[in-house]
Design a protein that fits this description.
With 181 residues, the chain is of the alpha/beta class. The protein has a single domain (2-178), classed as SPOUT methyltransferase, trefoil knot domain (Alpha/beta knot, 3-Layer(aba) Sandwich). Helices cover 44% and strands 17% of the residues. The chain has helices at residues 22-35, 47-61, 64-68, 70-76, 85-96, 117-125, 142-145, 166-178; strands at 2-4, 8-9, 15-16, 40-43, 79-82, 101-105, 114-115, 130-135, 150-152.
C-alpha cells in the first residue's frame, strides 16, 4: 500500500506536496497489519517530512513506544518511508521478484481504466503482487495516475457527498478487497 504525499492536488487543482500526519501513519499501519498488507509506503520527497515520519517510527519501533505498546510496534514495522513511487516499486521488485500491478484509488468515477472491487479482490486472492495507492490532500496528481495500471472504482455512499479522509477510505477499500466475506 502506498500513501502518496507528492505529487497530489490541492483544492485549487495545483500540484503540491502535502504534509504527513502522524495519525495517518499510525492508523494506516494498524489497518495494514489487520488486513495482511506486507508493506505500507509513505511517499514524500521532502526531507523534513521524511524525518518526521522516521522519528515517529523510531519511537514506536525502537524507543519507549516499543515497550509501551507492542501491537503498535508490530504495525509500524510495516512502514517504509520513500522519496517517490518509483522507489516503492523498486523495493517491491526486490522483495517479491516481480513488478507490482499498480492500482490507484480516486474519488472520481471519470476514468477509462476503472477496476471493480470484485476484479481487484480476485487479483489479490490469486496472490498477485499489487501496490494500492492512496492520495492525500485533494487526490493523486495525473503524473501518478499515468503510472498506474488501473484505477479502483470510487467509494460511493448514498448521498452524493464524497470527501472521505484517506484513513476512512482506506479502511473501507481494504475491507472490500481483503476482508473476510
Amino acid at each position: 500500500m502506498g500513501l502518496i504525499h507528492f505529487p497530489v492536488y490541492n483544492k485549487n487543482y495545483e500540484r503540491i506536496a502535502s504534509a504527513i500526519t502522524t495519525l495517518d501513519i499510525h492508523d494506516l499501519a494498524r489497518l495494514s497489519k489487520t488486513y495482511g498488507v506486507k508493506r505500507l509506503f509513505i511517499v514524500t520527497p521532502l526531507d523534513d517530512q521524511q524525518n518526521l515520519a522516521r522519528r515517529v517510527l523510531r519511537h514506536w519501533i525502537d524507543g519507549y513506544g516499543a515497550q509501551y505498546n507492542r501491537h503498535r510496534k508490530e504495525a509500524l514495522e510495516l512502514v517504509c518511508v520513500v522519496p517517490d513511487l518509483d522507489r516503492a516499486v523498486e523495493e517491491i521488485k526486490e522483495t517479491e521478484g516481480e513488478a507490482p500491478l499498480i492500482i490507484a484509488t480516486d474519488a472520481s468515477d471519470e476514468n477509462d481504466r476503472s477496476m471493480s472491487y470484485e476484479k481487484a479482490r480476485g487479483i489479490i486472492q490469486e496472490d498477485k503482487t499489487v501496490i494500492l495507492l492512496f492520495g492525500t490532500a485533494w487526490g493523486l496528481h495525473e503524473e501518478v495516475m499515468k503510472k498506474t495500471d488501473n484505477i479502483l472504482d470510487p467509494v460511493s455512499g448514498r448521498t452524493g457527498y464524497n470527501h472521505l479522509s484517506v484513513r476512512t477510505a482506506a479502511a473501507i477499500i481494504l475491507d472490500r478487497l481483503a476482508g473476510a466475506i
